[in-house]
Amino acid sequence: MSRGDKSAYSDKQKRKAEHIEESYEAKGVSKDEAEARAWATVNKQSGGGNKSGSGTQKSETAKRADRKDSARRASATKHGHSPNAGRASSSRGRRGSTSLSDMTRDELMKKAAEQDVHGRSRMRKDDLIKALS
């Protein structure tokens, strides 16, 4: 499908885009901008044109998890960290490690509770590491 080709969209998606476009034009947005915003909205809501085959569309829960993971990785990259730094793929990767920085915030909270660290509920991960060190 070439860019701008709407043939892969369902009739319902086309109607939705047209309705959104009309809404934007009524608010004074230019025709080109209104069309671009309308299709962007349809794409965001439905994931693009029709998908063929069974099981190709993700559930809302899976989409939400993917967005959350993507946001976490983007934030880590923005702050100069490797997206998976300090985060093992599963708890088995952390079992043998005693380093505080390898622990999750929840694990640090449990350890802080055991040591009765004052003010732990308001602490961030870095603060918990300092308090436990």
Automatic annotation (TrEMBL):
Residues 100-131 form the Rho termination factor-like N-terminal domain. This is Rho termination factor-like protein. Residues 1-133 are annotated as: Disordered. Pfam families: Rho_N (PF07498). Residues 1-36, 60-72, 103-133 have a biased composition (Basic and acidic residues). Signal peptide: none annotated. InterPro entries: Rho-like_N, Rho_N_sf. It comes from Pseudomonas duriflava. GO terms for biological process: DNA-templated transcription termination. It comes from the Bacteria.
